[in-house]
Amino acid sequence: MSLEYITRPSSLQENAPLLIMCHGYGSDENDLFSFASELPEELFIISLKAPFKLEPYGNAWYAINFDAEKGKWSDDEQAKQSRDLISNFIDEACEKYPVNPSNVTLLGFSQGSILSYAVALTYPKKVKNVVALSGYINPNILPSEFTNKDYSNLSIYASHGSVDQVIPVQWAQQTPKFLSQLGIEHAYSEFPVGHGVAPQNFYEFREWLKKHL
After folding, report:
1. Is 49 exposed, middle or buried (0-12, 13-18, 19+ CB in 10 A)?
2. With contact defined as beta carbons under 8 Å apart, do 135 and 156 qualify?
3. N or C terminus of the chain with fewer C-beta within 10 Å?
4. Radius of gyration of the chain (CA)
5. Are 154 and 125 contacting, i.e. CB atoms less than 8 angstroms apart?
């Protein structure tokens, strides 16, 4: 299974920092790509399309049962499949485009954020930064030995809406403690919005990103 995507080239001719976008459930590659024109021009931006089609439109990284309890709410096997698809895509993109394989950022929203965490925590040598918007860490899609991995080069920015009606803010509030236990440098913010990205949120993660490129 290969992933479809759209790109925005970098202003640099070689060794550009790579930013890979992972959209949320029911959306597509155009969603987060709307941020591209406002992000640093040296970034080579790729916005991925999730592999599983939804009816009547949109795509998903894995199936969700919105009525279930937290532990049963996501199809973890499908999520692991998508996690590895994204990981393999990083390798392919670094071979195909004039980017720096040591400077890869994942930017995800909601389900794409959950997957971005999973990729970075499973394959930390491939990812330098994560911008995780309106998501949470699902330990069920991480390898059993993930606590033994070296996360010294990984930095994470996480944010959430304090009145998120899709993913409860309490799930996201567990993130700082989880990352601290792994010694991962991180920032966490909440904004008075629902399941979305407030303008202040965008400006904050953009500044964070500029400092971490």
Report:
1. middle
2. no
3. N
4. 16
5. no
Alpha-carbon distance of 7 to 16, in angstroms, equals: 13
Whether 108 contacts 132, CB under 8 Å: yes
Residue that the structure tokens 């070689």 belong to: 14
Residue 182: partners with Cβ closer than 8 Å, 6 or more residues away: 121, 147, 151
Q: What is the pLDDT of residues 77-93, one digit of tens each?
A: 999 999 999 999 999 99
Q: Which residues contact 210 (CB under 8 A, 6 or more apart)?
A: 40
Q: What is the pLDDT of residues 16-69, one digit of tens each?
A: 999 999 999 999 999 999 999 999 999 999 999 999 999 889 999 999 877 766
Amino acid at site 80: K
User: Among 13-17, 65-69, 95-99, which stretch is predicted with the lowest mean pLDDT?
Assistant: 65-69
User: Can you tell me the distance from the alpha carbon of 44 to that of 3, in angstroms, rounded to the nearest whole number?
Assistant: 17
Q: How many CA atoms lie less than 13 Å away from 176 in the CB half-sphere?
A: 9
Q: Which residues contact 109 (CB under 8 A, 6 or more apart)?
A: 22, 23, 24, 27, 31, 32, 133, 134, 135, 197
Q: Which amino acid is at 59?
A: N
